[in-house]
Structure formats: C-alpha cells, structure tokens
Specification:
By secondary structure, this protein is of the alpha+beta class. Helix content is 28%, strand content 19%. The chain has an eight-stranded mixed sheet. The longest helix has 26 residues, at 159-184. Bound molecules: N-oxalylglycine and nickel (II) ion (NI). The site of nickel (II) ion has 4 residues, from loops. The site of N-oxalylglycine has 12 residues, from strand 6, strand 8, strand 12 and strand 13. One of its GO terms (cellular component) is nucleus.
C-alpha cells in the first residue's frame, strides 16, 4: 500500500474501483474465507412459480417446495415468473449505462446518508468501514413509484422508464411470493398483503462491480443477510455466493449461484426469519469479483413500511415455540447500519434474537 492509503483515501468519487486502479489497495484486502467454496450449484432449488396460479393442488405443491427451500437454505431461484425478458434486459442495460456516465453526472446523487431515498455511493459505508469493497452502487426507493421516480437519474435517457417498469413488475412478483410464504407458514395468503401493498418499502439497489485486478484478494460485498422480507435479484454474470450452513456436517460451505438468462434469485431476508419465528432462515451471501468483466446486479428489497414493525405472529407462538425475536422496522435496520460494521460480521438479525 502506498503511504497514507487507508479507507479514507478511497472515498466515493475517488474509490479504487471508480478509478480502475491497476492494483488492490490493502484496505480492500479481505482475510481468506475459512469455509470451502463448491461450484456445485445442484443444491439450489429452482421453482416454477407459474404454478402458483394453477389449481389448488398445484399451488399446494409449489408452496411445499418453497417452504422446504426457505427452511433449508433461505434461497431459491424462480422460473416462469411472468416478467418479460425485454424488461429484464432493458433494466440491466440502463443500469450499466448509468455507471458509464461521466463522474460529474453520477456525483449529483453522491451521498453517504443511509436515510436518503436516492443515493450513489461505493463500497458499503463509504470510507467509514474498516474494509472497503469493490462495489459502486445507486440505491433508490421504488414504491409507490410516483412518489420517488422524479428523484431518480434523468440520465441515461430511458433510465426512469425502463428501471421503473422493472421495479413495478418485480414488486408485483414480490407480493405474490410473500403471499405464498405467509400461506406456507399457515398464516394465509393475505396476512401481509395490505401492509406490503399500501406502505411497503421497495429499495432498488443497482450494483456495479468493475473488473478487479486481483479478484481473489477483495470482495464486491462481504458476507451479510438482507434486512428485507425478501430480495429479488437479477444479475448479468456469476459472482453471487450463498452460504449453505448445513454442508460438511454443519460447518458450512459457500456455493456459487450461476447466471442463467431469465432466472431471478430470491433471498429470504431477516424480516421473514422473524415472521417465521426462526423456521425460515435469512440467507448469508457475498459477492466475488471478476478480472475482466463488469458485473451488474439489481437487488430489489421488499419490506413492510418504514416504521411498520415486523413481529412474530401470535398464531406461531405456543408453549414449545416462544417468541424468539424482537420486533423491528426498516428504519430500525437503518439505525443499526449507521452504528455497526457489516464487514466485521455484525448482523441485524443477531440484535433481534431473544436469548433463551
Ligand atoms: C445486496 C446484494 C448481491 C449481488 O445488494 O444486498 O447482496 O449479487 N447483492 O450484487
Ligand atoms: Ni444482499
């Protein structure tokens, strides 16, 4: 590392990944994972969600698959989700074009205020965390669309229209999936639908991981779980790794989730872990880097309203199953984010667990 190079040298607008530095500065170097990484992605369930609209038996079958995936891994892929391939391609394309804009244009959105509804930044908590990550991102609220879209980038032309269309489609899908999830827990399909529909939050995280000169030493994102109920993710290249805690006799391993055109990934987030009183687990995941290509991912995080607290449903509590989590909202997560360092392994869900 050059003299004086620490995290504060690589603040947003001046980060190594935005400048395409030909080397990885020390403050980006992560300790190697102690867990093996297997390329075998055969364990990742793929669910045909068009069958949710089928007859009762068909729907029950899908819900059973979904329930198993949520219990074992907290992660699945979906096919036949009904979103047109053009909408997915267009969203990835405008995302990529946004990151190719001149710095001056992107800097209009630069902010490390985690409460801002639209912001451009780098790493995780830019320049503040101990370790930096090789990521550039634009985050914006997306629901209700008419409330936020005028704050989104006007450039590249078509960004608002194409990203907006993608956000709307993904949100409809998220409501449908949440209905299946609450049904699988015996709470009924509409248990959360009005709360998610009316005030629910949708945070679209548009991630860009530029080529990294030494992809083994740095990460795009450190191991973390999402605060959301569910996150729907679209990627243009491999790079997502999920943690399978049951593998190797319970010591766990990382599994690469390959890019397949048209497939969307679904992460169970901390708020569904709470909703299920721990039956479903939020998935720990991270992002690895590529030496040649720029990776783009669109992560759409769906949760209840800003101050609407997710709590363990009374229906799931009895003598054998006491309440295992404290209630919390999206805003509580943001407060947690300000005070903690995810790169050091701090997890929101750990702060919610009620000790026996
Ligand atoms: C995230 C995330 C994964 C990816 O934005 O929370 O985990 O593949 N992204 O970019
Ligand atoms: Ni994530």
């Amino acid at each position: 590392m050059e003299k004086g190079e620490d995290s504060s040298t690589f603040k947003m607008g001046n980060s190594a990944q935005e400048r395409s530095l030909p080397y990885v500065p020390d403050c980006y170097v992560v300790p190697p994972s102690s867990k093996p990484c297997d390329s075998n992605s055969g364990i990742v369930p793929t669910i045909d969600v068009s069958r949710l609209k089928g007859g009762d038996d068909e729907r029950r079958g899908v819900i059973q698959e979904l329930s198993l995936a949520c219990q074992h891994l907290g992660f699945f892929q979906i096919v036949n989700h009904g979103i047109n391939q053009n909408i997915l391609d267009d969203a990835l394309e405008v995302a990529n074009s946004f990151f190719e804009l001149p710095a001056k244009e992107k800097k209009k959105f630069m902010s490390n205020d985690v409460y801002a509804p639209v912001r451009y930044s780098t790493s995780l908590k830019d320049g503040l965390d101990k370790i930096q990550f090789w990521r550039i991102f634009l985050k914006h609220y997306a629901h209700p669309l008419h409330r936020w879209i005028h704050l989104w980038p006007e450039n590249p032309p078509g960004y608002r229209e194409k990203m907006g269309k993608f956000c709307e489609e993904v949100r409809k899908l998220s409501i449908e999936l949440m209905g299946a999830i609450t049904e699988s827990l015996g709470l009924g399909r509409d248990y959360l639908s009005s709360r998610m529909d009316e005030n629910g939050m949708q945070v679209m995280t548009v991630n860009c991981y530029p080529p990294c000169p030494d992809p083994e030493t740095a990460l795009g994102l450190p191991p973390h779980s999402d605060y959301s109920c569910i996150t729907l993710l679209l990627q243009n290249l491999d790079g997502l790794k999920i943690f399978d805690p049951m593998a190797h006799g319970g010591s766990g391993r990382w599994v690469g989730v390959p890019q397949v055109t048209g497939v969307l990934k679904v992460h169970i987030g901390d708020h569904v872990e709470v909703l299920s009183n721990g039956l479903y687990k939020s998935i720990v995941h991270k992002v690895t880097l590529n030496e040649e290509k720029t990776r783009i991912s669109l992560a759409s995080l769906h949760s209840l309203g800003m101050d609407d607290k997710m709590s363990v449903p009374r229906e799931l509590v009895n003598d054998e199953n006491p309440v295992r989590y404290k209630e919390s909202s999206f805003n509580d997560f943001l407060d947690f984010l300000v005070k903690n360092d995810i790169s050091q392994g701090d997890r929101f869900i750990d702060t919610l667990r009620i000790k026996d």
